[in-house]
Amino acid sequence: MQRKDLTMRKEITSGGEFPIKEQLLAMGELSFLFLRHPNSDAMSVTSLRASLEHAVDTGHFAILRQDDVPRAALTYAFLTKEAEADFLQGGLPSSKDWIAGDRLWLMDVIAPYRQGSAKKMIDFWHNSLTPDVTEYRFVRRGRHQDKARLYHAKRLPTGRFGSTMTEMDKPA
């Protein structure tokens, strides 16, 4: 796993139709994981592409590897209030939306192998956040037919994160 500066805002200088070699490799590894994750089964190709491409274009991802094989990953974004509202209604933020705001979102945790890798990714995420990051949000959209869960995580005085959960209707 490579550590990323999770508070960095990047200028998008490549990607899209002209990815560099590292972006193509990351796209392949993330695709490998997404295509094996049960929550991705119902995703449209457009949603899958947006989930992968925007994370890779902005560098907002981390991949857990075991013996050089991807086993889990996460993606994150810094959304504006407007992009956040659209996302909660089922919209797909653009690559520019992923770096435009100050609202930190854990966009996807992809851990298809049930080896504790989701917990490892979350622990990595928490340990990578700088002390000035005091909160982030995450939507869990799987398993429940008509409901999604919105988590709001806040840094506790101990430095660890605790979260509250709110159920919400899934967007149509």
Question: Which terms summarize this structure?
Answer:
alpha+beta, 172 residues, 30% helix, globular, 6 strands, 6-stranded mixed β-sheet, Aminopeptidase
Q: Can you tell me about this structure?
A:
This protein has helices at residues 21-34, 45-58, 81-88, 97-100, 117-128, and strands spanning 61-66, 69-79, 103-110, 135-140, 147-155, 161-169. It is built from five helices and six strands, in the order ααββααβαβββ. The protein is α+β, with helices and mostly antiparallel strands and 172 residues long.
CATH architecture: 3-Layer(aba) Sandwich
Query: What kind of sheet is the major sheet?
Result: 6 strands, mixed
Number of self-contained structural domains: 1
Mean of the pLDDT scores? Answer: 84
Q: Which series of helices and strands comes N to C? A: HHEEHHEHEEE
Strand content: 25-35%
Q: What is the molecular shape? A: globular
Tally of helical segments: 5
CATH hierarchy, class: Alpha Beta
Structural class: alpha+beta
User: Which strand order do you get reading across the main beta sheet?
Assistant: 1-2-3-4-5-6
